[in-house]
């Protein structure tokens, strides 16, 4: 279980298979985010039809509502949300640390206030694992601190905590049908990332995440950090870049040897009327699309583009119809999931570098608000 086979490599880019109790994951893979045990606007059947293989759910949200013990009673997260494939839960750390006004960190854990009813709660590494054991995802994450990436003193201090917490997570994790991944931190500092990757590598976990990126650093800093980290992480274990999912970041991440990604970007943008295309991002609310008889993206084979006009999609957005979110979410996920499939095929065929260059040349990135 959780064996990772490397099938092909092209420079640093890798194609592999990660075996999980709910089926194999073909990597590189992008995971749509189902924060509250649902990928917003999608049914599980729609996700399957899109070719999604891995779905992420958020521990912080599910712990607060409906509660991890309730999910366990109802058969665990796979049964509860009716997702038959592999699932991943984060540790709750990122959300808790994002509540910067209402949380208190110490070396043992974090005390925080619920965003739902203001009640007080406490996460420790042991508690984060217990909750994730109750939820029952295939891949679970160590409880870590995600510090401001540019503040060296803070990053250094929090790194010690993150490492001690990783050991505590490993020592209490009991379910053999769940893989516990460690999370490398260290901000944008090469020496700290190296130290963190070395420390976690020594724990011999079944997979590793690169955390604390796409939170305010430049693209150059992000790429340099991925490169430094991947140079230390073991070849034979999957590497997961957390919270990154713009098309250009996916291509650059795969190019630097990342195997797994997740991000709210495609689904969140869809609910804000934005469509990904192979050339950049479109705001489908714009008046220029009011009488446009073409599809959202010419040549796209998704259900939205195969059947509906830009004029109709824009009408749904302006009229605030639920179907607008459904159609644009379908389209955006289709764009990212086909990009991942194409990258995997290119790695297998030995043409990845050409593919990546051609994609990045025609794609106009938009600095995204995450
Ligand atoms: Zn489409």
Strand content: 15-25%
- Helix count? 15
Major sheet characteristics:
8 strands, parallel
Percentage of helical residues? 40-55%
Radius of gyration, Cα only, in angstroms? 20 Å
If strands are numbered along the chain, what order do they take across the biggest sheet? 4-14-13-12-11-10-6-5
Ligands present: zinc ion
N-to-C terminal Cα separation, in Å?
Answer: 34 Å
**Kindly state the mean pLDDT as a whole number?**
96
Look at the helices and sheets and give the structural class.
alpha/beta
Weakly predicted, low-confidence segments? none
How would you sum up the global shape?
Answer: globular
Strand elements, count: 16
Structural commentary:
It contains 15 helices and 16 strands. It is of the alpha/beta class. The two termini are 34 Å apart. It binds zinc ion. The site of zinc ion has 8 residues, from α12 and α14.
In short:
By secondary structure, this protein is of the alpha/beta class. It is 43% helix and 19% strand. The strands form 4 sheets. Strands 4-14-13-12-11-10-6-5 form an 8-stranded parallel beta sheet. The chain has a 3-stranded antiparallel beta sheet with strand order 1-2-3.
How is the topology of this model organized?
Elements: E1 4-10, E2 13-20, E3 23-27, E4 29-32, H1 44-50, E5 55-57, H2 59-64, H3 68-73, H4 77-81, E6 87-89, H5 93-98, E7 103-105, E8 110-113, E9 120-123, H6 125-135, E10 139-141, H7 152-172, E11 179-184, H8 190-202, E12 207-210, H9 219-232, E13 239-241, H10 247-255, E14 260-263, H11 265-271, E15 274-277, E16 280-283, H12 303-307, H13 310-318, H14 322-349, H15 352-362
Helix pairs in contact: 6-7, 7-8, 8-9, 10-14, 10-15, 11-14, 13-14, 14-15
